[in-house]
Design brief:
Layout (H helix, E strand, L loop, with lengths): L2 H11 L5 H8 L11 H21 L12 H16 L2 H11 L9 H30 L1 H4 L5 E5 L3 E5 L6 E5 L14 E7 L2 E8 L5 H25 L2
Antiparallel strand pairs: 1-2, 1-4, 2-3, 4-5
Helix pairs in contact: 4-6
Amino acid sequence: MEKNDRKAIQEKNGNIFSKELFFNSLLSEPEGNGKVLKEEELLHRDLLYKMKVLQVILFLDVPRLTLSGDERKAMKDKKLIGVKVENEGLLFGYTFHVSSNPEFKHTWNYMRKQLDKYADFLFDAKRFFEYVFRDITALTDVLKDLQDIHIVFNELVDVAYVDNTPNILVKMQWDKFHNIAKVGNGYNVSVMVKGCTLTVYNCSYKDKVDKLCEKVKRMKLNFEFGNRENNELHN
């Protein structure tokens, strides 16, 4: 979906949820319990590193990144990211520094080979979050009236629709951060009521957003029908 299409959907829905707000929500620290324990300090340190990784991905400047699912266009975007990696001198210095550890037997080849895979990782992760933003924006009209419903993308991004402003609440599941490396071939969308999963959809980057919306609409009808039957049984 192109930029103008997303803007049209936002205006139609009265949705003020912007990509900037989406990124800021993802980068928000989870609320702690106020205790300062050694284990929590270590977890907090890990969280800061994860947030830095996420910042790199979200704010990666790839103006031509497409949402069409066209592999030829995707290859152009991957090459553009690859050029950015190759031009990052500090990154090469870091890989040499790590490879100088005796555990690597002072061999730099492995680290250099990983740089190519690193560019692929950046592209896959960046594309994933672009699609998540596209999907949650398009699903606003479908899910905004359902209480306690939330959707989770790859067990990583939890999204709820509420009556307040902003009408979309997003949070990262930091304990599932490793799933960020598993989005290269597609992603799954779980529709949940509190902690219970209603259904899971497997999505491809070639899919149009309308396909997901239609699936969720059918789920919504079944969910609402089931609720009416339960209410009639208890009345």
